[in-house]
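Regression check, protoporphyrin IX containing FE case 389:
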Amino acid sequence: MAELSLGEGIRALGRDAFLKKLHDEAPLFRDPNGFWVASKFEDVRAILLDHERFSSSAMGNVSSAGAQGGGLSFGFPLLTDDPPRHSVLRALLAKAFTPAAIEAMRPAVEALAHELAAAIPAGEDIDVVSAITSPLPVRVIAQMMGVPVERAPDFRRWSNALADIQSGPAAPERIAAVMELRAYFAGVAAERRSNPGDDLVSALTRVSDTSEVLSDDQVVAFCILLMAAGNETTTNLLGNLLNRLAREPAGWDALRADPALIEGAIEESLRVDSPAQMVIRRATADAEVSGTRIAAGDMVMVYLASANRDPAKWDDPANFELKRLRERHIAFGHGVHTCIGAPLARMEAKAAMTALVARFGSIAPGRERGQRLPGGLLYGFRALPVTFG
Ligand code: HEM
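Current build output:
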């Protein structure tokens, strides 16, 4: 175990076997590259609760060298912040994500899900990512940010580029795409300053104009965070769930017979195929995890996907069981940074699954193999061919 790095281990053994090996042999694993990997459910929970000793400063920084020195380097406000600044920024967004605000969006999201499902032909290989799992969340977040839904294909392209950059050295066109994304939101923010509306971008520009909390550049980075967080992970959740169901068709039949099982299926998918595989923390002081000393300054990969398969918490943890007794998973994180978009993601996923299950009698894998996302941070599909019957 000790000789393999996290990335090599996943590549060599496959994700399922590697996650099992971590639990069996090294629940707190020192990667040869110097960082720690925490995989036990209780350790992960404890680290995420202890934001004083485990800072988010290392989380979500985008940095990539470009051609002729034209590189990129910026961090996401909120995600990379610790309290007290984190609490101030979180409060800014909280209003848009209250249960009442999400509930008010439900009818429009359900209508959109039905419209997208109705446009999918039966009996043909289709890419479910471009047909529904991507357009649904992209259009919803575009609406919340008050940007034209016609730009949805650009949002998808920009999100993909951002995911690529975060998973390793990126091609020049990917860097160029993220620069385009920054320029786009700088333009939107400037426009909202002179013409504010009732949307998230206007709310952020108001804050930067009236306080020191956010600079103009940070407003742009915040917009990018919302755009990316608002669509990429929900797309991945739906893709992972549909992939499972295409391979285990009894699940589709069960959901058709009893759509009340859909919510449980979504939670089980989040647990067993967590769309955000890990988050990153940096120790600000010496700490002890599972009896091992972590030194101040050390980086810790907080492995949500692994915690969600902890055999101490779930029987046969790698099995996707539709009717599993719902123990709380940790796919949305824990503590002060717990995903603010979780109720929205759940609502969108339920709307999409309800529409698909109502329209189609079956789902099967397409002829082509699905295209998985690169890197170890996000887990999902960039393209997923399936055939609905
Ligand atoms: C299945 C879908 C989703 C998953 C699995 C997911 C996962 C996560 C996780 C694990 C975190 C915690 C990060 C940390 O602890 O460092 C997080 C934070 C966050 N998520 Fe999500 N997310 C999803 C959907 C969404 C949606 C739909 C939105 C918004 C529209 C969103 C916006 C955010 C934001 C703004 C944060 C930062 C919160 C903070 O730092 O206080 N997410 N998400």
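Comparison notes: The chain has a mean pLDDT of 92. The longest strand covers residues 278-283. No diff flagged against the previous build.
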